[in-house]
Amino acid sequence: MTSIQSKSILRNIFSLTTGQAVSIIFNFLSITLAARYLGVDSFGKFSYLLALVVIVSKFIDFGFAPIVFRELSTNKKSFALLNTAIIIRGIFFFVVLVIFNLGLLLFDFNKIEIILANILIFNTFLSTKFISFRELLDLPFKVNLTMHYPMMIMLIDNTILFLLVLLMPYVNGDITYFVTVYVLSNIPGFLLMLLLLKKKYNFRPEIKIEKVKWLFITSLPFYGFVLVD
């Protein structure tokens, strides 16, 4: 192993460790303050809806990430399989979205709860808190040992959320405000992620599908683990 590789690995480990630690602190502060401002009933409703959305989001995982990571590691210039995984997850996201809303209606959720749940589920696209689309966008950084970029972006997301939560008592922020900023705070980071992927690795999302059957079959054990988990 060369000195440059060793430095890259150490920098990657440091970035991941520091980024995760600082993000946990910011998340803890944001959630603690939000719970205080919202009160028991409203924060309980938020937690319940978030738990439902997290569970539902697992059904579009398919266990693609480890397989795409392995293939991208052998050919860092080819993003066809990455785009395939993104497209498949995107298609099934809308399928799951329809089923999810039918379930909300079936179990007699009220109008506000349905709206909030639908806002939250779009965090599947935008947020690092959901292991879905942002997880796939992280893969080029992982294979190139440049995880300091995603960690930096995650800190931006969490900082924006923290600042918006601090504003809650001044704008009479209720559960609708908190759910909205919980999602919207990830948009700048999501766009910055796409910009960096284009600038650093010349990656851009494309409607390109290949090796779909192979990808599903190879990913099946990982998907089974995700569902059991």
Helix and strand layout, with pairings?
Elements: H1 3-57, H2 64-74, H3 80-106, H4 111-121, H5 123-126, H6 133-143, H7 148-166, H8 175-184, H9 187-201, H10 212-228
Helix pairs in contact: 1-4, 1-7, 2-6, 2-10, 6-9, 7-9
Report, as a whole number of angstroms, the end-to-end distance.
36 Å
Bin the helical content.
over 70%
Major sheet attributes: none
The run of helices and strands is HHHHHHHHHH
What would the principal axes of the Cα set say about the shape?
A: globular
- pLDDT average, as an integer? 87
Tally the helices: what do you get?
10
Rg from Cα: 19 Å
Helix/sheet category: mainly alpha
Query: How many individual β-strands?
Result: 0
Uncertain runs are none
Question: What portion of the residues fall into strands of 2 or more residues?
Answer: under 5%
Describe the structure.
The two termini are about 35 Å apart. Helix 1 runs antiparallel to helix 4, helix 2 packs parallel to helix 6 (about 135-145) and helix 2 crosses helix 10 (about 210-229). The protein is globular. It is mainly α and about 230 residues long. About 80% of the residues lie in helices and about 0% in strands. The longest helix has about 55 residues, at about 5-55. The protein has helices spanning about 5-55, 65-75, 80-105, 110-120, 125, 135-145, 150-165, 175-185, 185-200, 210-229.
